[in-house]
Amino acid sequence: MRIWHGTPYPLGATFDGAGVNFALFSEHATKVELCLFDSPEATQESRRVALPERTYRVWHGYFPDLRPGQVYGYRVHGPYDPHLGHRFNPQKLLLDPYAKAIARDLVWDDTLFGYPVGGPHADLVPDERDSAPFAPLGQVVDTAFTWGSDHPPRTPWEKTIIYEMHVKGFTKLMPGVPDELRGTYAGMASEPAIKHLTSLGVTAVELLPIQYHVDERFLVEQGRVNYWGYNTLGFFAPSPRYCSTPDPDKKLHEFKAMVRSLHAAGIEVILDVVYNHTAEGNHLGPTLSWKGVDNHSYYHLSPEDQRYYMDFTGCGNTPRTRHPRVLQLMMDSLRYWVTEMHVDGFRFDLAATLGRDFREVDHRNAFFNIIHQDPILSQVKLIAEPWDVGPGGYQVGQFPVIWTEWNGRYRDCVRKFWKGDGGLTSEFATRLAGSSDLYQDDGRRPSASVNFITCHDGFTLADLVSYNEKHNEANGENNRDGANDNESWNCGAEGPTSDPAILELRARQQRNFLATLLLSQGVPMLLAGDEIAHSQQGNNNCYSQDNELTWLNWELSPEQEAHLAFVRRLLKIRREEPTLQRRRFFHGQPIFGTNVKDIYWLDNQFHEMTDEAWNAGFVKALGVVLIGHNDDTNERGEPIVGDNLMLLLNAHWEPIEFNFPRVESIVDDFERLFDTAEPALPPTQVDVNKPYVLMSRTTALFRWTLAHHRRREEPT
Q: What is the pLDDT of residue 248?
């Protein structure tokens, strides 16, 4: 076999049409061997070749006789001294950190560990057994693909509606999707899947992790898997478990075809990515890739004893983001998914960890600075989960200007409001209006807030209003896992019930939550399944449940069909009303030189809220008026003219009358768009001279024309 020196860049295995260049960074290695396998099923390499050249601490070689489809791994030689951070062991076959396709998944075995599995000090001695029969393997690919006229939708943030979903769970039970495509990327691109998304009216899907991840050993031994996927090992490769074909090139093609189909439907693709830790765990974890390639360089080790890892996520390790090559890997990976796979953005899991150069979170560190100056990454959607489990890890409202954030304070406040907690009306109003207290001071806009009520991690919406306690027994941890953050919802019996009154109250509370979410300023995020009232039977931590508990069941009851119709109606209002898509925060001051403000907060007597009212321990009901003809402008600087909207919210357990003022002379066409107590009623005209009875735990939305606004637009 011919071997040339090749080049140190690009890193990974790169087919150039004539041969394959291999390049691997390892600062402290003494030798790197490329191991070639005849097939994914082979238990031993057929050829082992030392990479002939080392440039800038990158080991590289060019093989003119190799082609796409070649299966490979590495063996890396160097010192084994855990107290100094070194864990080289050439008996362990390693996955290329830049592998673009996975030929074979990991099979758990003791030989995958760099030390003899045993007592607490076992990792101080290297294990001499070969891990090749069980290690994951990479595969050389040809990345060529015919994209045709594909182009990113580039939906403006203020018009974005996110749908958080799992690739498998979305289509596994979906009627009309061919059996062989259910639960796959191809299933996501199928007509029934895209029809549901477009008829629903979302503009972006946020996919739970699809980068190659492995199932933790303890889960496999219990007969379960890491369904959510937050245990990444390969940051360039799409997970093969969601592919309908074993062919390496077609794995990439299938993912790309999915993106192309979603783009053609006007839907953006956002990836949930996990760069805050890897699947190799702590000092007692396996040696699968980074740990054996150069543990000291790739991981954030304890300054007191480099045998141990800094852990800010609870998952065992933290990448060493202050190392330039680790930063390069992350940036190369992100750019690859944008330029090669055409994705539109990323949601960064536990993103506060990425800002920790040492111990404290610093949003001016290298990771954020590099993204901000990058001409590709700075132009896509960047969403932070703004916390981790380390000290000072709760960073909501603290991320840099070009980032949006999962707004955990929005979720918590809205839940408490509809639960009936007191003392938070002022905060609730702030959340409804875009959370200016979190994002205005640093120059961000309402779209910096990704608003959500539920997400993959926690109760579904149906369970949120049906359970006071978590029921995670199926997870095998005696119900100790998952946060118990859902006490005393006063929605009747715990769990399933046939009581019509309880079922109606639960359904109404779901409608209240969704109405609040979709009528708030900011970017709404809907959890897949909430539109059909999907239940996980009270399990709020379904990370290991790859079964009917998490797969969406599309055989809907009449009640679910009605719920879906109402959600579609809400989303249509959201999409069509410019007043709900503001690019700037409300300022509560007169506009256009008139005495009309852009927003009004009202009590049930239609009086503006006073300081005394805001500070009351429990405010039964709240009204908000949004003036559509205001000083907000679109991206071209043109005035945004929408409808005038009035939202009434009653979180009390009794009906409340809203007494409209005498407004015959200034109001035309006063129309109720919906009332969550009567969701099936169509829009209807309302007599403003009569009190409006807002039923208990109800939301209602109205639209009208201000006569003097109409007259201002008429020629004089």
A: 73
Q: In the sheet that 667-675 helps form, which strands lie side by side, from edge to edge?
A: 599-602, 621-626, 644-650, 698-706, 667-675, 684-685
| Per-residue pLDDT at 492 | 62
Return all residues near 562 (Cβ < 8 A) that are at least 6 apart.
679, 680
Q: Which residue numbers are catalytic?
A: 349, 385
Asked whether the whole model's pTM tops 0.90, one would answer yes
Separate counts of helices (H) and strands (E) for the chain:
16, 31
Strand, helix or coil at 219?
helix
Cα separation, 695 vs 456, in Å, equals: 31
Which string of DSSP letters, residue by residue, matches 140-191?
--------TT-------GGG--EEEE-HHHHHTT-TTS-GGGTTSHHHHTSH
Mean residue pLDDT of the chain comes to 93
Q: Average of pLDDT values for 507-525? A: 98
The CATH class of 160-578 is: alpha beta
Query: 438-471: per-residue pLDDT in tens?
Result: 999 888 999 999 999 999 999 999 999 999 899 9
List the chain domain ranges: 12-139, 160-578, 586-713
Overall CATH class of domain 586-713 = mainly beta
- In total, the chain counts a number of residues equal to 716
Residue 52 CB contacts under 8 Å (≥ 6 apart), including other chains = 3, 4, 5, 61
Given a contact cutoff of 8 angstroms between Cβ atoms, the answer to whether 336 and 238 are in contact is no
- State the CATH architecture for 12-139: Sandwich (2.60)
- Tokens representing residue 261 in the block: 């189909």
Q: What's the rounded Cα separation, in Å, for the pair 101 and 79?
A: 29
Per CATH, 12-139 and 160-578 having the same topology is answered no
